[in-house]
Write a structure and sequence with these properties.
heterodimer, A: mainly beta, seven-stranded mixed beta sheet, 11 strands, globular, B: mainly beta, about 50% strand
Chain lengths: ~120, ~110
């Protein structure tokens, strides 16, 4: 059984950065894409980007290009999502999810518990 | 990008009834690369269906998916109390991945 455990809630100032981690256990970490999805309060799901650790190249939604970086550390089975130049509209729950295949274009079969990021002055 | 429109926005039904949720795409979803998720309050989404009609591991057979091209349906044959939640469709046939806005299934 695959488990994804994310880092804890964060409160950030506008203009700062946040880095959220997602540690995987069980299953094979490197062979499946790790995807980041966010959900603003009371809103729907929004894809931010994904990375297949064995390939190392991330794909990002155009909306977040230049502001987000997704990386993975294969030695610790941990993925990271860093979002920069934070603004109030970035206040959301951020989820990592494992794809069903080794590609970012996939269904998402395992999800982390979510990390709440609050951006406030 | 492919825009997914879910209907209805809210569906009010009673336990034991049948639920039919719709997801319409702005253009054809290649190879029926469409998934459905359930999200209960305060929880992460849970995968129900992928490939338009394949049930994910551990999902009860009262959940079924159908459709192709631009029109997809999630059917819950007999509603259980734990099925009242928000449901999202997602396409993964082309980048970017996109989700529908969700259908809220509430107890009547």
């Amino acid at each position: 059984q695959v488990h994804l455990v994310q880092s804890g809630a964060e409160v950030k100032k506008p203009g700062s950065s946040v880095k959220v981690s997602c540690k995987a256990s069980g299953g094979t970490f490197s062979s499946y894409a790790i995807t980041w999805v966010r959900q603003a309060p009371g809103q729907g799901l929004e894809w931010m980007g994904g990375l297949v650790p064995i390939f190392g190249t991330a794909n990002y939604a155009q909306k977040f290009q230049g502001r987000v970086t997704i990386t993975a550390d294969k030695s610790t089975n941990t993925a990271y999502m860093e979002l920069r130049s934070l603004r109030s509209e970035d206040t959301a729950m951020y989820f990592c999810a494992r794809a069903g295949i080794a590609a970012h274009l996939s269904w998402l079969d395992y999800w982390g518990q979510g990390t709440l990021v609050t951006v406030s002055s | 990008e492919i825009v997914l429109t879910q209907s209805p926005g809210t569906l009010s039904l009673s336990p034991g009834e049948r639920a039919t949720l719709s997801c319409r795409a702005s253009q054809s979803v290649s190879s029926s690369y469409l998934a459905w998720y359930q999200q209960r309050p305060g929880q992460a989404p849970r995968l129900l269906i992928y490939g338009a009609s394949s049930r994910a591991t551990g999902i009860p057979d009262r959940f079924s998916g159908s459709g192709s091209g631009t029109d997809f349906t999630l059917t819950i044959s007999r509603l259980e109390p734990e099925d009242f939640a928000v449901y999202y469709c997602q396409q993964y046939g082309s980048s970017p991945l996109t989700f529908g806005q969700g259908t809220r299934l509430e107890i009547k």
